[in-house]
Amino acid sequence: MTRTEEFEELRPLLFAIAYRLLGSVSEAEDAVQETWLRWEAAPTTPKSTRAFLSAVVTRISIDILRSARVRREQYVGPWFPEPLMTDPYDDPERSAELADSVSVAALLLLERLSPLERAVFVLREVFGFGFPEIATAVGRSEAACRQLAVRARRHMEAGRPRFAADHEEREELAGRFFDAFREGDLKGLRELLAADVQLVSDSGGKAPKFRAGVFGAEQVSRLLAVLVTPFVRIGGSVEQRHVNGQPGAVFRDRHGKVINTLVLDILDGRVQAIRSVLNPEKLSHVGPVANVWTVDRETRQALRQRTAEA
């Protein structure tokens, strides 16, 4: 097998590691590309290509993450990871860990960790690397990595909900939610939302947003029910999809261009949180991006016209 073939075989794993460390599709792709350049220039062949490339992409991602933290502190409004439509890496023996670790809720918890804690947690808990390999990847002793793993696990477990939703129950509830949403069914929406549900958007200051967030079942259900009819009236569509492994949707304008993504956080038989990515800089990998300001203006004009006609 040539070096190129070895690399391409491992590319899905390398991207999966980088994305979980960075929460960014574009930055993960950059990290994988830089890994390829270093692999191509490596003077010798390592004993384990998988271990070598995983270590390289981890170190590159840690460096990117450290510089990205400064930018995120200056980010306008809430920061969410770039939506991931499909995880390219699959491992049947670790399917549960892989699915859980790519959810928006889990990625936001990972943001609380230091870059080293995050790297150790991802390599150990998600991908099952041994501590000797992890120590090489992050440049710390095995003992130090074990301590980092304990701290990271403690932080992650403290932030996780006590009861996860059953997969079938979650999918069924999501289907009911989107049916009610498309129909503008206020009562149906309200019944599916937790009392303290929150609707929060990541616009990065580059798109309209729902103020600092919309909170409570009554407020959220009313906003969703009011906006969907004029949105559909101007040719908009709601494409139900899995986003970061969770029930969600892609919103498109009349030309099929991407407006935003939306993901549902479902627990205890209710939608607990609705998170939307509106920042166009985070959506280009999903498809051609719409002018969200134009869509927002047209939707509000259609809403005013509908109100006047009523």
Automatic annotation (TrEMBL):
Q: Does the keyword Phosphoprotein apply?
A: no
Q: Which residues form the RNA polymerase sigma factor 70 region 4 type domain?
A: 106-156
- Annotated RNA polymerase sigma-70 region domain residues: 7-69
- Any Pfam family from its record, for instance, is Sigma70_r2
Q: Does the keyword Transcription regulation apply?
A: yes
Entry keywords, A to Z: Sigma factor, Transcription, Transcription regulation
Family affiliation: Belongs to the sigma-70 factor family. ECF subfamily.
Assembly and interactions?
A: Interacts transiently with the RNA polymerase catalytic core formed by RpoA, RpoB, RpoC and RpoZ (2 alpha, 1 beta, 1 beta' and 1 omega subunit) to form the RNA polymerase holoenzyme that can initiate transcription.
The molecule here is called: RNA polymerase sigma-70 factor
- Tell me the organism: Streptomyces flavalbus
